[in-house]
DNA sequence: TTAGGGTTAG
């Protein structure tokens, strides 16, 4: 290792500040891989964390200006009291302002329309018309079989689709001026517009209602809010919710849970809980839909305590979950990494008489697969077949992915054949990708190639993930000519290379030599020429560290977050396989600085640990060298040391991590480092303080110049 | 979609 590249665990740790652009000019003399706090990856550090105002800000104006106006007269004393929450309700005769009304909106009852058949037929005729021909539509309107009275018009309006027809008919009804156009007409039209994700039209209609003095009720507001939500206009959803309060209308529980979902989707957990608790304090008994909103939110934030809170609330309020709520909670428990809880909840569900549907089973199969609970997964599968529980394409594909996770090739093959013979669930690109993954990760090259050829024959579109699986498999098998062919054919068939595919090519390159390496490089050139230019830069001796840093930062900025660490790992491997050891150390340092290896080194009073589980073989070797050098200088300076040192490679249970422990072991021997594989804990290498100190002493004072 | 709210795929 170059003498200029001495790392130190303890000295010269000027940790760069992510907001300080000066950190781009890194020190070149002393690197400190093991003393950095991770810095946000380059393109994330500049972005504001949250552009949305908090709900406490949102609710402040509501609490002080709107909620207090529920009594018609403005009462300054009340406004003042509202600012002091502890002494709000001095006057017990005044009703408490609430956040929601416990009364649902009452619907007007339908009376039977004797002309229903004629009107439905008329609606069908309109539906069959070409929307683009306004004159034809207008002509059909003249054929309306009965006068467009309020009831008749409403019946037709309810039977029309898509939204263009509904809007056309609604506008026509308005021009007829046979009756005042009431709220329900707007509501029906808005619902259709929501289905077509036409928020702009919805908002225009809402403003028209305001202008014409047509009342906006809870149905109107909830439709506006959910339409805004579906169109990703969360700002508008909040705006209309606030507007509702301002007009003095209280949301009912439907509107309330709709807005809870809006805040949840904005990631505003505290605000959702604040609204939830305020609702509860107002005597609201949340229903399964409200709990589904909370459950989903806590699942998304992987918050197990939150999910437990939801379960507890449901229990204490005696709310019986329905199918959707069960599905949501199962999904949430899966995301929170609680397969045992999910299994228990599923058993409760079946025991309580709720029959699982495709979504239930998809959630559970995914959970068991990810947890590698093979026995549970297979038992569930048997129950699915025995009970003839419903299957759909997504469930089939999830089962295939589970087989991939558990290495169940024969079972996957059976399932895949079942799918080919089925009416509803013919294999699609996801199914083929799962099978390519199964054959590819099992090293079954011929079967994987056969599947690749089959895809185009059956007319299924190849996707980038399937292509990546196959290329990985061919690379491992050193079938480079096949790999190039597959890459070229995939591009011809419209596959657009993504960062994972590039990472896969880069990884193949790292263990290829000579002509093979050039062949893979030419594929990578077509997919990501900047990456190839960077590899060339690494190989040039004259390239300075500053240039490497600048270019690497540029590459990371352009790369999807999940592909950044694999890129860094592969680039380090490439350097090591080409005897560019110093470059490998520079890249590991940069990877640490840019937060690609969080927790690489952890310290407690008793133990210092090097965690290389997420590193490639070359990166782990590089990290070990860095660490040994750092420890050496600490020993030489006679500073305080813990009792135990350990390195964690992982035991290799994951299909791709096998081999890291053994290659690490070889490198430990090569460096004659004092670590031994732990007998108690698989995947751990350990050394005591004494081992380390005597090792350093035996090496003599010039170690750092010799490694 | 039949006047309003919640759930499935690397």
From TrEMBL:
Smr domain span: 610-693
Alphabetical list of InterPro entries matching this protein: PPR_rpt, PROP1-like_PPR_dom, Smr_dom, TPR-like_helical_dom_sf
Superkingdom: Eukaryota
Keywords: Repeat
GO biological process, one term: positive regulation of translation
PPR repeats: 217-251, 252-286, 322-356, 357-391, 392-426, 428-462, 463-497
Biased composition (Polar residues): 48-57
Record flagged with keyword Membrane: no
Region (Disordered): 35-57
Gene3D superfamilies attached to this UniProt entry: Tetratricopeptide repeat domain
Parts forming coiled coils: none
GO MF term (any one): rRNA primary transcript binding
Gene Ontology, cellular component aspect: chloroplast stroma
Pfam families: PPR_2, PPR_3, PPR_long
Family classification: Belongs to the PPR family. P subfamily.
Name of the protein in its database record: Smr domain-containing protein
Source organism phylogeny: Eukaryota, Viridiplantae, Streptophyta, Embryophyta, Tracheophyta
